[in-house]
Amino acid sequence: LLDKVAAASQLPDGPSLDDFIQKGPNAAKSEVASGSRLRQRRERKPEWLKVERPTGENYQRLKKDLRSLKLATVCEEARCPNIGECWGGKQGTATATIMVMGDTCTRACRFCNVKTARAPAALDPLEPVHTAEAVASWDISYVVITSVDR
């Protein structure tokens, strides 16, 4: 094993702590100093890439029903940015993806935002009944049923 001094000497020179500390209100304007180089400030995302906050009667109704029936959806658990389009569709065009077996997965995939745990809570014995109630009461085009990994 190399000692700390030898290991540090093998690392390339990088930014210092001072490079990360803002120096007044004009420090974050258009260019950021990094050593002797100048970098352009990161551009904002284009408007067409941004999604609006989900709203609408269908969206609110589906969300309320899911809460009252204690159901999870991959749409919410994975923080899908398109949830407003799917749940907020007009009469007969909305969709939902119900995630059975709870809201906690055991896999911890790096690309996924679903909550993970080695020993998730016990399964809800009424979940199949609640899922059937939800699907029967919604006027939506189709429902996708998926599950977490146990």
Protein architecture, described:
The model has no long low-confidence stretch (mean pLDDT 79). This protein has helices at residues 4-10, 17-20, 57-69, 74-77, 83-87, 127-137, and strands at residues 31-34, 37-40, 72-73, 95-100, 104-105, 115-116, 142-147. The strands form 3 sheets. Strands 3-4-7 form a 3-stranded mixed beta sheet. The radius of gyration is 24 Å and the shape is flat. It is built from 6 helices and 7 strands. With 150 residues, it is α/β, with parallel strands linked by helices.
Radius of gyration: 24 Å
Number of strands: 7
Strand content: 15-25%
Strand order of the largest sheet: 3-4-7
Please state the average pLDDT score: 79
Structural class comes to alpha/beta
Question: What are the secondary-structure elements, in order, as H or E?
Answer: HHEEHEHHEEEHE
The amount of helix comes to 25-40%
Shape verdict: flat
Please work out how many helical segments DSSP would assign: 6
How many strands, what sense, and barrel or not for the largest sheet?
Answer: 3 strands, mixed
Report the uncertain regions: none
Q: How far apart, in Å, are the first and last alpha carbons?
A: 40 Å
Structure in a nutshell:
The protein has 150 residues and is an alpha/beta fold.
Q: Can you give keywords for this protein?
A:
6 helices, flat, 150 residues, three-stranded mixed sheet, alpha/beta, two-stranded antiparallel sheet
